[in-house]
UniProtKB/TrEMBL annotation:
Listed name of the protein: Ketose-bisphosphate aldolase
InterPro entries (UniProt xref): Aldolase_TIM, Class_II_FBP_aldolase, FBA_II
Cofactor: Zn(2+)
Gene3D superfamilies per the UniProt record, alphabetical: Aldolase class I
Pfam families from the UniProt entry: F_bP_aldolase
Taxonomic superkingdom: Bacteria
Length: 297
């Protein structure tokens, strides 16, 4: 069943769990996320970055839509970190029910302007919009001292941003970073900032950079009030570690010989995340909900 983000996260917020957003760019990753969410009876969000959308091509998303529309569990098809109106328009053209416009690296005025422009366009079509305030850090050995810290979201700014833009959900900076953390870096999610933001913003809040964080910190963030957690690196890492292992020991090249075991490894991570987010079994809470429909598409 296809939903938009308002439908998906209203239930999550009310029932104090989070929905995992899993980035996909090919059929194998889609299979890993969708089949495991179905096995867990957990709602899920299929997230696609603009670079992933460019790689996969428009025809792929016709397949994605049919797969999730016909699923027994609810899904959202979501543009992740869209950075231009053109990205947003392409996602809408491809049938996405939700988009993110990320102006977090721009000035306050420019972030508000592009986010409001996106909201005004998308709401005409029933497409929900996620904005971002504050920035998410980056990880990797090529970055000096291994971690480029993000900017923490200020509660008063979050309140003003939501009021001025009309966004449906808000991604906040509370100490996470994209990617896999180096072994010498221990992330720290600022639950105190999350609580302060929740006190003044009554919108579902989103945690980006959900991979590679300590489970106890993610669990606490969800229990405190995070409604959506983005996962990309963790389950892709498991997939490709297995792929390298198989290719190192087997000269076969058929996808049907290589990918099934890789998918199973990725599914283990998706299951763990669904459990961590409290999402297992929660698909039944959406029973009777009408699927999202966009009569303009």
């Amino acid at each position: 069943m296809l939903l938009n983000m308002n439908q998906m996260l209203a239930v999550a917020k009310k029932n104090h769990f989070a929905v995992g957003a899993y980035n996909v760019s090919n059929a194998e990753l889609l299979k890993s996320a969708v089949e495991q969410c179905e096995a867990d009876n957990a709602p899920g969000i299929i997230a696609v970055h603009p670079t992933e959308m460019a790689y996969a091509k428009d025809d792929f998303f016709a397949y994605v839509l049919q797969r999730i529309k016909n699923s027994k569990v609810p899904f959202v098809l979501h543009l992740d970190h869209g950075d231009t109106i053109d990205n947003v328009a392409r996602a809408i053209h491809n049938g996405f029910s939700s988009v993110m416009i990320d102006g977090s690296l721009a000035s306050w005025e420019d972030n508000v302007a592009i986010t409001k422009q996106t909201v005004d366009m998308c709401h005409l079509l029933g497409v929900t919009v996620e904005g971002e305030l504050g920035t998410i850090g980056q990880t990797g050995n090529h970055i000096k001292e291994h971690l480029q810290n993000g900017i923490y979201t200020q509660p008063e700014d979050a309140k003003k941003f939501v009021e001025e833009t009309g966004v449906d959900t808000l991604a906040i900076g509370i100490g996470t970073a994209h990617g896999i953390y180096p072994s010498d870096v221990t992330p720290k999610i600022r639950i105190d900032i999350l609580k302060d933001i929740m006190a003044v913003v009554d919108k579902p809040l989103v945690l980006h950079g959900g991979s590679s964080n300590p489970d106890d910190q993610i669990s606490e963030a969800v229990k405190t009030g995070i409604s959506k957690v983005n996962i990309s690196s963790d389950y892709k890492y498991a997939f490709f570690v297995k792929a390298r292992e198989v290719l190192a020991n087997d000269e076969g090249w058929d996808p049907n010989n290589l990918f099934p075991v890789c998918i199973e490894e990725a599914k283990k991570v998706v299951h763990h995340k669904n459990d961590l987010f409290g999402a297992i079994g929660k698909a039944s809470l959406y029973d009777g909900m009408a699927p999202w429909r966009n009569e303009f598409l």
